[in-house]
Design goal:
With 398 residues, this protein is an alpha/beta fold. The chain has 14 helices and 8 strands. Helix 9 crosses helix 10.
Length: 398
């Protein structure tokens, strides 16, 4: 039999410890309204029954949404969300973790993007609470995804053994329309959200031979045409998606300019008189190790700047002081040139690094879908705490 204090259907055992947890977490009679739960050293809800009790207390008016958000453990919310998933789908309702995360989205200003989600989407709800989706590894996807067979057949034309100077139009069209179909599917799942796509980088190419240069140029041409055709098809269906086209790791502004001109040319030739129907901006994707000077130079040209932190981020530990100092210097060099440019850090893995990003004035992040829930909740907690600290300072100064 369930405890009288716990009315949560998620508790199926004969006894429940929720009463003790709630009394520890939220002693209503002793609550100091001037302090957050975090400041008071209260326990964090880190299990499904505990999260369910937070939500229940909020719904009956015993605590506010903000208090519930601050009382939850962001590092456990991903596992809790997966645990509650089957129950929520079975009863066709919004489970407690989903509801708590929805509340956190309402108080959070940080933009969060999903990164390299399975192509096509296996679960559409993996984008919940995000501003959009970023596809940064289409080179990898072409070699391992649904287009592998047709892509390999197309790429074989550029083999040094064959050396074909006139690639097959038939193979190009097959690859183009299959690619367009997949991008169109992604845009439908996004429901008018932002889709960021990095141009294929050719990272595995030496680009020393004319064949390799032609291969990369042709592949980018196909990718861009597929992207614009997919966006135009969605527009004709009444959708207005926004595109972000990222130029990956340009060595200098000259290389940036060549890629930029390719994007504009393909857009002009593909969209023609309907060019205004597709909204897009062109950004730079750079590794976190980029020099301050190069970052500043590229920020003068780009509509947005994405720093790829996948090489320095780790789920098990936070950034070192050296990493923080290096990132801070790069962000500062970008902000000096373009104070209001959208600045995004990709490849994030540890929500504990968020406090440093807020201090650097970074307003957007992206990460793999498994870490999104933790970042949604942790960002809301940081912003609520900052708001509370600001209010306390105002009261003290008053």
């Amino acid at each position: 039999m369930k405890s009288d204090r716990c009315q949560n259907n998620c508790c199926q055992s004969g006894s429940c410890s929720m009463s003790d947890f709630v009394e520890t977490l939220y002693p209503v009679s002793q609550r100091d309204e001037r302090k957050s739960l975090k400041d008071e050293g209260q326990a964090r809800a880190c299990s499904l029954p505990e999260i369910a009790s937070l939500v229940e207390l909020t719904l009956i008016g015993s605590m506010t949404k903000e208090e519930a958000i601050l009382a939850a453990d962001p590092y456990s919310i991903g596992a809790i969300l997966r645990e509650s998933g089957p129950f929520s789908r079975e009863h066709m309702d919004l489970g407690a973790p989903e509801r708590l995360l929805k509340w956190s989205d309402e108080v959070r200003s940080l933009k969060i993007f999903a990164e390299n989600v399975a192509y096509p989407l296996e679960q559409s709800d993996c984008l919940t609470g995000t501003t959009g989706l970023m596809l940064l590894r289409e080179d990898h996807w072409l070699r391992n995804g649904h287009l592998k067979e047709i892509f390999e057949e197309w790429a074989l034309q550029y083999s040094s053994n064959l050396g074909m100077q006139h690639p097959s139009i038939v193979l190009r069209e097959r690859l183009l329309y299959r690619w367009k179909g997949h991008i169109e599917t992604m845009l439908h799942h996004l429901d008018e959200g932002v889709l960021g796509v990095a141009l294929v980088s050719g990272a595995d190419l030496t680009l020393e031979s004319p064949l390799e240069k032609a291969y990369l140029l042709d592949l980018r041409d196909i990718q861009l045409e597929a992207l614009f055709r997919a966006a135009l098809a969605c527009y004709r269906q009444g959708m207005e998606n926004r595109l972000e086209i990222l130029i990956p790791y340009p060595a200098d502004t000259e290389e940036w300019t060549h890629a930029y001109e390719l994007i504009e040319r393909v857009a002009e030739e593909t969209l023609c008189h309907q060019r205004r129907a597709v909204t897009y901006r062109i950004g730079a994707l750079m590794r976190a190790e980029v020099s301050e000077e190069a970052a500043a130079d590229l920020s003068r040209c780009a509509d947005l700047f994405v720093l790829d932190c996948s090489s320095i981020s780790h789920s098990g530990h936070s950034w070192s002081e050296g990493m923080i100092g290096s990132l801070e210097a790069k962000v500062e060099s970008i902000r000096k040139v373009r104070p209001h440019i959208p600045l995004r850090l990709s490849g994030m893995q540890n929500a504990a690094d968020l406090s440093e990003l807020y201090r650097m004035d970074v307003n957007e992040v992206s990460m793999l879908s498994g870490g999104i829930a933790a970042f949604r909740l942790a960002a809301a907690q940081l912003e609520l705490q900052e708001e509370a600290d600001g209010a306390n300072r105002y009261c003290c100064e008053g």
